[in-house]
Amino acid sequence: MKAYAYKKTGKASNVLKLLELPSPQPKKNEVRVQVRASGVTLFDTKKRSGELPQAFNAAQVIPHFDGSGVIDRVGTGVDVAWVGKRVWFHISKWNNTNGAAAEYVVLPFEEIAHLPEQISFSDGATLGAPLLTAWYSVHIAGLLSDKVVFVEDGASSVGAYAIQLAKQKGAKVISSVSTKEQAKLARCSGADYIVNNKENGIIENILEATNGQGIDLYIKANLDVNEQLIPNLLAPDASIVIYSVDKNDLKIGNISQFQIKRTKVIFFIVHDLPQHILRQAKEDIQALLISNGLSFNTEKVYNFADIVQAHEAVECGDTGNAVLCQCPLQIANHLQK
What we know:
Blueprint lengths: L1 E4 L6 H4 L1 E4 L9 E11 L1 H8 L16 E9 L11 E5 L13 E5 L3 E3 L6 H4 L4 H11 L8 E4 L5 H12 L3 E6 L2 H10 L3 E4 L5 H8 L5 E6 L9 H4 E9 L12 H6 L3 E4 L7 H16 L9 E4 L3 H9 L6 E4 L12
Parallel strand pairs: 8-9, 8-11, 9-10, 11-12, 12-13, 14-15
Antiparallel strand pairs: 1-2, 3-4, 3-6, 3-15, 4-5, 5-7
Helix pairs in contact: 2-11, 4-5, 4-10
């Protein structure tokens, strides 16, 4: 099979190579998916660049945790009726080295979910880490009816889904953005109020939008970003959900301010969520997909041969999800040994 892989970390243009590899075969309780599209996330790019630790326990690493496609083979223990089914998937193993930037991927049956016919493969490739992360960020906070939720970076892949899910639970949603284009995307996802990170008066604007009550749930990546401002924005007994941490030596200088407001801080990483939580998430998501209850922020779709451009777009902070689609006829001449 054809697959993009890297044998060392670095810039996408330097380390991503198109290889011809043996097609993987499913073992017991596994399925093989013929990949039609794979999602490119910041997690993928940070692992590839070396910004996040990468365990090289294989000859090479095939990137991309998320994707969609059609099951073409099943291992023992899996009903053969699944062959030919459209699916989306999220490979939750933290150090998995065989991702979805390939013609085929093998993964445990429990990691796949049915993709309804009305959902495109490109949109299906964005339902992995971004949507599961957004779902847990909203789910863990409990009841949100009439609560105020602040979603940082509402034009991001996680942020756009978090806005939608919070609105569906009856919350008033405020979101931060950095550009007018991002503001438009956040509003399309359902944000009630937008603040610009680059403008002054963010605290005053948010407090005005909440009638001085503050935020009940703050969803963000990396607690050390804007941590000096956060206590001033929170309502008493608020929760902060942190879904990404880039630094192991995190130091918060104003911890007493969080303590005074009885703030609950929840850290998690989607790749390590327990299977029973992921099953519940996929059941909820499946209901939304069937009822057309989600909109997709799939702004950038790239041909398989353009994986470098897809990675660079994500690293540059382009809005929306970046999706890599399989176009075998266009990559035949790009093969590198």
